Model the fold of this input.
Amino acid sequence: MSIFKEDIEEAKERLSAWWDHELIDRPCIIYFHPKTGVPFHGIYDIWYLSKKWDDIQGCLEDFEKKSKSIYFGAETIPWFWPNYGPGIIASVLGVEPNYQEQTQTVWFSRPTPVNEIISHLESQKLNKNNPWYARLINITEHAAKRAKKDYSVALTDLGGVIDILSSFLGPTNIILTMKRSPGIIDTCRAIILEKLLKVYDELQDIIERYGDGCNSWIPIWCPKRYYPIQSDFSAMLSPKLFKRFVLPDIKEQAEHMDHAIYHLDGPGQLVHLDDLLNEPSITAIQWVPGAGEAPSSDEKWMPIYKKIQKAGKSVIIDNPGETPAAATYLYDVLDPKYLIMPLIFLTEMQAAYYLPEFVGGNGAKGDFKQFKKEFRKRQKEKQGI
Done:
């Protein structure tokens, strides 16, 4: 039993079945909300380490203090993510990360001439003299030792191969080099992927030494090894260039693990969906519509979800619509064996009203004001008021 979640073993059992596209007693769902009756300390700052690179002690104290006031419902495994930004392997390869407070993100940029990029990547060694490699190793071990099995320690956001290369060459030079000197891109890809997988294995080895399972920036615990593979750069590529320069690395990365999620980010990547669905090593697709698009519960995306499930892969949908009612709807119209949704609720009462009935919710049925009145009455009765 975890100090943060009493039913953690039952949750892990259901998640183990979900990864194998099976159901035990009900579908899986991930949700959390502030606990009722205790002071709420907020959600831990996921950008803490991006601002204070080496303060792992302070970061873990922040996480643990705030997690004590959060209810981790259903298949939510308490989850600590050492986040240095999307694509920290770029820093292992020599880029200093630049955290932007205003936008709350990290940028990686080290403009490098095309004729120097191979020698630069080859010169970056994975040893204690590499400050970012050493930092990732040390901080992951510190967190895993402290967490044990009370909470899951996730892998940091390693990034996508071409996305990492873009930190050095930039989009225009990458596309031009793909067409003029494809061998340079191939060599860079091979170097980056080899180092990325080595870091992945070493970090996961550390996590397994002290705890169990695997987790990532998508908070879905797995009993075996997985990772959310991504290539945001692919939105700029034609299907031909994607198949030539991106898909082989996705396949190799996925085959390196027991399971793999592909992070499909925005309509610009939909042109590559068929190629991704044809890869048996990909277990699930996380669909993110992107800024300015209809929410993920919108009917326009339904053919995409059904196509993914028909291909034998699961769909991951985060906070799907303008109201949490979309969660119940999506579980009704899609195959629940091939679906999981991480949801955030503001209160226990909101969760109780909007959650699907299979997990004890009200399924967003009836008048909310009346439900609210009855819910508060039940809470008072529990407290003997």
Residues 235 and 268 are 5 Å apart (CA to CA). Residues 8-224+318-346 form one domain. The longest strand covers residues 30-34.
